[in-house]
């Protein structure tokens, strides 16, 4: 106080100057979103539903510049939360109270823009290759940020790529580069959001990206470049090779879902010692492609890429190597006539072992119940993303690659952890189980979820992996159902949407519906299944995914009420248990666990026509 009095006495104009400085600082903070990155219009659509920005974040500090060159740039795309400003109000303040959610796709090599434009963003690719508004966009709950990570994926690039080389990444450098990009986002691009709660979400190999990036952020929590990380949601994830070994095997999965008869499974699994790990277990499509390339180079010579690709003999050799690599029955396969016959029948019965690369694929390898062989969405996206006017609109013209999502000369990736790399695990490498033990106690909430029909990463292995974190279950937090409010989809959305998006969407509301199972552990860790969903939960179950996101952001790990204690359940009489089960289920379907469902059910009941010829049986109407 004394110092202030002296200063005011020295300069009577100082209060005015201080006020002007404070006002100037506030104006700078409110309008600090990057004008050069603003996206006023998207080619083929027009102004987006909410304001969006796209451009580059500086990831150099976390990148391996010894091999990637002097700089690394990560492409970001950011959409403002709903309920903010006019889409045209470029300079208006952001809705600063909303959390920021980062979404990451996996691969390695899968662009997060795929998730943004096919799963959860405000605009989605429709059935004709255009765009439609997404009623269940995650921007309903938060600001949404996607980054194309690591460098060399999508329009993210490194200095070496400019000179015709490849970007090189490892699991560790991917995490440190992503953290450097996030620091740039919150300090340079959008400092007005630096105090907002931040959550990381994603799927597939993001099962490695998210825990490792979270640890990288938490390890720097005492520095000045703080990212306000509060929670994570990790979907259908690469987690632990041992826990997920069987459940990521297409023979095991095919038998579970009735594609392979018991006798054939017993023969192949136990006597023939056949194993058919999914492409995801091998590290994803891009890692598998690298494996094939290495074999081709070894057998045809490093100059194979200079050979005439139209030469039928060369193409046949490459096809043979690809086929042998993809469908190899494992190192311990018994090569008997009986086993070879059973294996060939297995391939016929299971769409070539749930292949991700077979032209005649008839079972969708990501959803099981989706239309087989439907790849139009990816092709439409790639064509749109590579258009010159789209590159200009997204401010990515500086990227040396004109091909998307993988550059013309590819990229290099080295895996360092014991997850989704069954054939190249470094000795003593930790899995994500070890990371969860360290990061979950430092976060407010951690969700690990899995679609319960995912052929790629089946839920059993993920559930086992999370149980091996060895956190105690909450008292009453054991495996139990959770519900969400299933609302009517606009008919225009059903007519326009891609066949892969929201196969459960209906024109009528059905109220509180079974969403899956949940188990809660100490330290805010929860494992959830998502009923009926395949690999990409926000795409296949958009309403359930948005419900789950809301719970994450509000840090409500209890998606349904806790169960009575085990001894209480065991000692109940049959009548008492029946009453408790009814009451528990009704409670789980209502607020605060499910909001809005009861009101919609009442409206639907009131609107039902009165029908004759019916009698009530067990509390329901039975028509006879």
Automatic annotation (TrEMBL):
Residues 1-32 form the signal peptide. GO terms for molecular function: serine-type carboxypeptidase activity. One of its GO terms (biological process) is proteolysis. Pfam families: Peptidase_S10. Residues 598-624 are annotated as: Disordered. InterPro entries: AB_hydrolase_fold, Peptidase_S10, Ser_caboxypep_his_AS, Ser_caboxypep_ser_AS. Belongs to the peptidase S10 family. This is Carboxypeptidase. It comes from Odontella aurita. The lineage of its organism: Eukaryota, Sar, Stramenopiles, Ochrophyta, Bacillariophyta.
């Amino acid at each position: 106080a004394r110092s202030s009095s002296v200063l005011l006495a020295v300069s009577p104009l100082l209060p005015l100057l201080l006020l002007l400085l404070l006002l100037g600082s506030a104006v700078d903070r409110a309008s600090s979103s990057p004008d050069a990155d603003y996206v006023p219009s998207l080619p083929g659509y027009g102004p987006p539903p909410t304001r969006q920005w796209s451009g580059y974040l500086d990831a150099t500090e976390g990148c391996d510049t010894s091999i990637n060159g002097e700089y690394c740039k990560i492409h970001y795309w950011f959409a403002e939360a709903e309920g903010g400003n006019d889409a045209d109000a470029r300079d208006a303040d952001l809705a600063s109270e909303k959390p920021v959610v980062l979404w990451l796709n996996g691969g390695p090599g899968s662009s997060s823009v795929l998730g943004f434009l096919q799963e959860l963003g405000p605009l989605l690719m429709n059935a004709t290759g255009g765009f439609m508004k997404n009623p269940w966009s995650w921007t309903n709950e938060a600001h949404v940020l996607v980054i194309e990570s690591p460098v060399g994926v999508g329009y993210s690039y490194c200095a070496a790529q400019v000179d015709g080389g490849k970007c090189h990444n490892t699991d560790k450098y991917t995490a440190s580069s992503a953290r450097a990009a996030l620091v740039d986002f919150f300090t340079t691009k959008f400092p007005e959001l630096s105090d907002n709660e931040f959550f990381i979400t994603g799927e597939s190999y993001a099962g490695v990206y998210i825990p490792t990036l979270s640890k990288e952020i938490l390890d720097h929590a005492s520095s000045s470049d703080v990212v306000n990380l509060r929670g994570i949601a990790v979907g259908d994830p690469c987690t632990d090779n041992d826990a997920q070994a069987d459940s990521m095997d297409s023979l095991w999965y095919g038998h579970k879902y009735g594609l392979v008869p018991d006798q054939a499974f017993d023969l192949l699994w136990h006597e023939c010692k056949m194993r058919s790990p999914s492409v995801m277990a091998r590290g994803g499509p891009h890692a598998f492609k690298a494996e094939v390339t290495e074999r081709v180079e070894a057998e045809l010579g490093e100059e194979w890429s200079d050979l005439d690709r139209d030469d039928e003999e060369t193409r046949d050799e490459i096809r043979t190597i690809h086929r042998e690599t993809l469908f190899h029955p494992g190192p311990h396969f018994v090569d008997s006539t009986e086993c070879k016959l059973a294996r060939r029948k297995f391939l016929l019965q299971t769409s070539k072992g749930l292949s991700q690369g077979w032209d005649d694929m008839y079972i969708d390898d990501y959803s099981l119940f989706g239309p087989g062989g439907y790849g139009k969405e990816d092709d439409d996206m790639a064509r749109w993303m590579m258009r010159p006017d789209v590159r200009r609109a997204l401010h990515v013209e500086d990227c040396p690659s004109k091909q998307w999502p993988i550059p013309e000369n590819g990229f290099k990736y080295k895996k360092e952890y014991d997850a989704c790399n069954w054939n190249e695990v470094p000795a003593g490498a930790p899995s994500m189980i070890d990371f969860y033990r360290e990061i979950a106690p430092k976060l407010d909430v951690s969700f690990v979820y899995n679609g319960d029909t995912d052929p790629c990463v089946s839920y059993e292995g993920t559930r086992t992996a999370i149980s091996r974190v060895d956190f105690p279950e909450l008292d009453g937090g054991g495996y139990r159902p959770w519900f969400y409010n299933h609302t009517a989809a606009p008919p225009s959305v059903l007519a326009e949407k891609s066949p892969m998006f929201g196969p459960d969407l209906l024109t009528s509301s059905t109220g509180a519906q079974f969403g899956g199972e949940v188990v809660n552990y100490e330290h805010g860790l929860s494992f959830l299944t998502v009923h009926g969903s395949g690999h990409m939960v926000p795409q296949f179950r958009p309403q359930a995914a948005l419900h789950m996101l809301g719970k994450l952001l509000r840090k409500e790990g209890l998606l349904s009420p806790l169960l009575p204690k085990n001894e209480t359940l065991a000692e109940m009489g049959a009548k008492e248990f029946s009453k408790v089960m009814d009451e528990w289920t009704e409670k789980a379907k209502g607020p605060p666990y499910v909001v809005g469902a009861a009101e919609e059910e009442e409206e639907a009941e009131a609107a039902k026509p009165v029908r004759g010829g019916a009698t009530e049986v067990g509390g329901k109407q039975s028509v006879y």
